[in-house]
């Protein structure tokens, strides 16, 4: 393990252990869920609009969530695991799903071929009954719609989409268009919303009353004594 990661694990262990931080000690996987989601969104923002320093910081915050959850998992009375177990498991998964790199002697595949093989191996190893299994139900609706459409397209499914003219169907049609054009619908909407927000802020600033003091009108006299 690298020195930096080992140090982070040790710091987390100190915070979680007796004599450490009371707040850290009482956290559970469930109580940390909202923080994992928040840190992921902040990482995306740093990637899209932040600096390199922002990116490094937000990657650290996401890494902290993994280390924190792994430390909590160590205390499970029946099925404990630690950060090494997590790392080994994901390394095993990467090797298993990249046989063209680790087993086939460097078979040349396109990125599309690789992705298709990844999905096929994942379906087999996880014993999934449907290509739609594993798409998180809690994922934002726009991103989830694009994931569902992508899974269906890669699997060559002839989906009989129920006809309709409601808002939901219209939104799904836009997501399908984005998918066909290779556009990340969620990112595109974030970009458009960010531009709209900037324009709204400009309009707000332009319409705000001036903070400068209003000059007092000069008194006009006819020169006669008062």
Descriptive notes:
The protein is an all-alpha fold. It folds into 2 domains: 3-96, Orthogonal Bundle (Helix Hairpins), CATH 1.10.287; 135-204, no CATH class. It is 64% helix and 0% strand. It has 10 helices and no strands. The protein has helices at residues 3-16, 22-25, 29-49, 52-73, 83-96, 99-102, 111-125, 141-154, 167-180, 185-207. α1 (3-16) crosses α4 (52-73), α3 (29-49) packs antiparallel against α4 and α8 (141-154) packs across α9. The longest helix has 23 residues, at 185-207.
User: What portion of the residues fall into strands of 2 or more residues?
Assistant: under 5%
**Total domains:** 2
The end-to-end distance, rounded to whole angstroms, is 92 Å
Give the beta-strand count: 0
CATH architecture call of the largest domain: Orthogonal Bundle
Q: Could you tell me the CATH topology label of the largest domain.
A: Helix Hairpins
- Overall body shape: globular
Order of helices and strands: HHHHHHHHHH
Class by SSE composition: mainly alpha
CATH superfamily of the largest domain: MazG-like
Mean pLDDT comes to 83
What is the subunit arrangement here? single chain
C-alpha Rg (nearest Å): 27 Å
CATH class of the largest domain: Mainly Alpha
Main beta sheet strand tally, sense and closure: none
Helical fraction: 55-70%
Q: What keyword list fits this structure?
A:
mainly alpha; disordered C terminus; 226 residues; 64% helix; Helix Hairpins; 2 domains
